[in-house]
Task: inverse folding
């Protein structure tokens, strides 16, 4: 199983239904009052954590999610139905970012957790809502608000229980392959593994249905904590694991000393993150089937005793000692007590924050046109039916009380200059 931990998707929330413009027709009544109903809300796009998903693989084939539109309002004050929200299942640990702004929209860490990622548009109001003492028979209704559209970047930090660290070619992938159904690439050259691979380990002997997840990451080398080699990008995956299996090549077949290797890798881990350095380690001395391994193992045992860590002689090739290692890992995981999660300070976007919605800014584009921007004003433009004189008059009224003419004049606007708001373009006239 190739593990994908980053992908992009597009979400399009539903548009609000349009408001209706209509009048009551009753027997003996020439023209009744306005009776156009409001449109319904468009579908929100809601992400929900599903405990049956482990990867973002599904998103490779399904890259776009679109919510239904709200129903239009109708005559006789009938409201359009709200659209059902569109649920998108994601695995636990998915971080959702706006791909265009980089803003974190949600950090989905709990089973069942939900987050509104794109809001459906509000339904347009029917003409009944616009009746007042000055205008008892308005002929216009609002259009539905467009739903939010976003390009997203999804990131999944592997929620592996065990992380494998060690120099290239010490046999990390070979170990994963020997204890799980995962089939990572294995070869004698360095950096065979270039992306993390997850393996689900069945703890046969130890418990009946017990499993844990092991993450194979690219090999680390000197300077890894500063970005040398490939391992650096993947160390963040190890941050969320509970236990580290530190693998050394006991045979020293590549000319390095496994005792040195152990200290060097730990130095890199410590520079990268204190949190990783505090993780309990289990030392796996691999390639015990090769000559010279026994001798080095003697010294590695002394090291383990001095460091107070568990040590296992194994051969991923012959599977010698592997079951003992797995049983021990299972036991450590069983006794594992979660370290209190420090505040990571991920700022999560709040879909309901009202701040600055009314703020209006005016800029000039390259051709000298005036660009008026502001969330609530852009929304008003999108929801106004400019084909209806009355709707246009209402728009002009709101424009005036917001003082936008004055703001434009301050910026030096002249008769016949062009003004853009959202998708609309106007000619400025006094
Ligand atoms: N004799 C012997 N060879 C082994 C053993 N484990 C792994 N190898 C060999 O060592 C080489 C490297 O193994 P990998 O499992 O690819 O090593 P890795 O640590 O995943 O390497 P990178 O992905 O490059 O970091 C391969 O040629 C394996 O066949 C072992 O227990 N005994
Ligand atoms: Mg590998």
Result:
């Amino acid at each position: 199983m190739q593990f994908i931990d980053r992908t992009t998707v597009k979400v399009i929330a539903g548009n609000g239904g349009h408001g209706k413009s209509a009048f009551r027709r009753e027997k003996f009544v020439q023209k009744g009052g306005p009776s156009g109903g409001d449109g319904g809300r468009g579908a929100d796009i809601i992400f929900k954590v599903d405990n049956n998903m482990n990867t973002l693989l599904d998103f490779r084939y399904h890259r776009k999610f679109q919510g239904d539109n709200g129903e239009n309002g109708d005559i006789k004050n009938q409201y359009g139905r709200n659209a059902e929200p569109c649920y998108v299942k994601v695995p636990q640990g998915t971080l959702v970012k706006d791909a265009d702004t980089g803003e974190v929209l949600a950090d989905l860490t709990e089973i069942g957790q939900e987050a509104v990622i794109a809001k459906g548009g509000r339904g347009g109001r029917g003409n009944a809502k616009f009746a007042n003492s000055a205008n008892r028979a308005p002929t216009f209704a609002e259009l539905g608000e467009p739903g939010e559209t976003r390009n997203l970047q999804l990131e999944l930090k592997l929620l592996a229980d065990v992380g494998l660290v060690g120099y290239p070619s010490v046999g990390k992938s070979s170990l994963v392959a020997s204890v799980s159904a995962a089939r990572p690439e294995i070869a004698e050259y360095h950096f065979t593994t270039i992306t993390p691979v997850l393996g689900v380990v069945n703890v046969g002997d130890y418990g009946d249905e017990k499993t844990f997840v092991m993450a194979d990451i690219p090999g680390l080398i000197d300077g890894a904590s500063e970005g040398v080699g490939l391992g650096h990008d993947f160390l963040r995956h190890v941050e969320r694991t509970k236990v580290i299996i530190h693998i050394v090549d006991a045979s020293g077949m590549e000319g390095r000393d496994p005792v040195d290797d152990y200290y060097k890798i730990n130095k890199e881990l410590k520079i990268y993150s204190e949190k990783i350095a505090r993780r309990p380690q289990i030392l796996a001395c691999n390639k015990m089937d090769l000559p010279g391994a026994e001798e080095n193992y003697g010294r590695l045992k002394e090291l383990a005793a001095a460091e107070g860590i568990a040590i296992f002689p194994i051969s991923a090739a012959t599977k010698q000692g592997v079951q003992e290692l797995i049983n021990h890992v299972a036991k450590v995981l069983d006794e594992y007590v979660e370290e209190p999660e420090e505040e990571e300070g991920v700022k999560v976007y709040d879909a309901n924050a009202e701040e600055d919605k009314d703020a209006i800014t005016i800029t000039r584009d390259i051709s000298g046109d005036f660009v008026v921007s502001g969330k609530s004003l852009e929304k008003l433009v999108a929801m106004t039916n400019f084909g209806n004189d009355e709707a246009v008059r209402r728009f002009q009224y709101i424009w005036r009380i917001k003082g936008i003419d004055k703001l434009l004049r301050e910026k030096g606007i002249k008769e016949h200059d062009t003004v853009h708001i959202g998708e609309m373009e106007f000619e400025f006239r006094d």
Summary: The chain has three domains: 1-156, 162-334, 361-427. The pocket of guanosine-5'-triphosphate (ligand 1) is lined by residues 168-174, 186-188, 190-193, 218-219, 286-287, 289-290, 315-317 (CB under 6 Å). The longest helix spans residues 258-272. The CA atoms of residues 54 and 91 lie 5 Å apart.
